[in-house]
Amino acid sequence: MTKHSKDMANLDALKGVWKDVQITKDEGDEISRRLGTRTGEYKSRLVRDPGGYSLGPHTDDPKKVWAFVYYLMGENGTVLFTPKKQGFEHDGLAHLEFKDFNAVKRFPFKPNSMVGFARTNTSFHGVEPTKGERWTILYNCFS
C-alpha cells in the first residue's frame, strides 16, 4: 500500500467518525466572541476537491459570518487577495477572475493547520489551481 493509499484510507475512516469533528454551539459562540462577530448557526463539512480544482477570488455568501479551513491533505492553501481596482467591494454571490486581483498572502497547505477569517465585502480569498486532490474540513458560521 502506498503512502497516498494509506492517507486516503485514513480520510475515508474520518467520514465514519464525522460527528467527532462537528463544531458545538459553545465552541462556535467562543470563536464568534473572539472574532468580535455575531453568533449564528455553525456548520462543518469534510471536503474533497479533485485535481485541477481552483476557486476564484470571492468574499463568501453574505449570510456567512466567519469561515475556517482545516487542512488535512493536499496542496495549495488559501490565498488572500486585494482587488486591483481601488475601493472595490463585492457581495460574495459570485467567484471573480484571478486577473483582477493581486495575491497578498498565500497560506501553505500544511496538514493539521488552519486558517480563518471574518467575512466582509472585502475579505477576498480563493484557491489557485491544484494538481492533486485536496482534503479539508470547513467550519462556518451563518447568520
Describe this structure in words.
- By secondary structure, the protein is α+β, with helices and mostly antiparallel strands.
- The protein has a single domain, classed as Jelly Rolls, CATH 2.60.120.
- It is 17% helix and 36% strand.
- The chain is built from two helices and eight strands.
- It has helices at residues 3-16, 25-35, and strands spanning 41-49, 55-58, 64-73, 79-83, 101-106, 113-118, 125-127, 134-142.
- A four-stranded antiparallel sheet has the order 1-8-3-6, with helices on one face.
- The longest helix is centred in the first third of the chain and has 14 residues, at 3-16.
- It starts with a helix and ends with a strand.
- The model is unreliable at 1-9 (pLDDT under 50).
Average pLDDT figure? 88
Task: List the total number of helices.
Answer: 2
**Strand order of the biggest β-sheet:** 1-8-3-6
Order of helices and strands: HHEEEEEEEE
Structural class label: alpha+beta
CATH homologous superfamily placement: Jelly Rolls
> What is the total tally of β strands?
8
Major beta sheet summary = 4 strands, antiparallel
Low-pLDDT residue spans: 1-9
Keyphrases for this structure?
single chain; 143 residues; alpha+beta; Jelly Rolls; 4-stranded antiparallel beta sheet; 8 strands
Put the structure in a nutshell.
This protein is α+β, with helices and mostly antiparallel strands and 143 residues long. The protein is built from 2 helices and 8 strands; from the N terminus they run ααββββββββ.
List the helices and strands and how they pair.
Layout: H1 3-16, H2 25-35, E1 41-49, E2 55-58, E3 64-73, E4 79-83, E5 101-106, E6 113-118, E7 125-127, E8 134-142
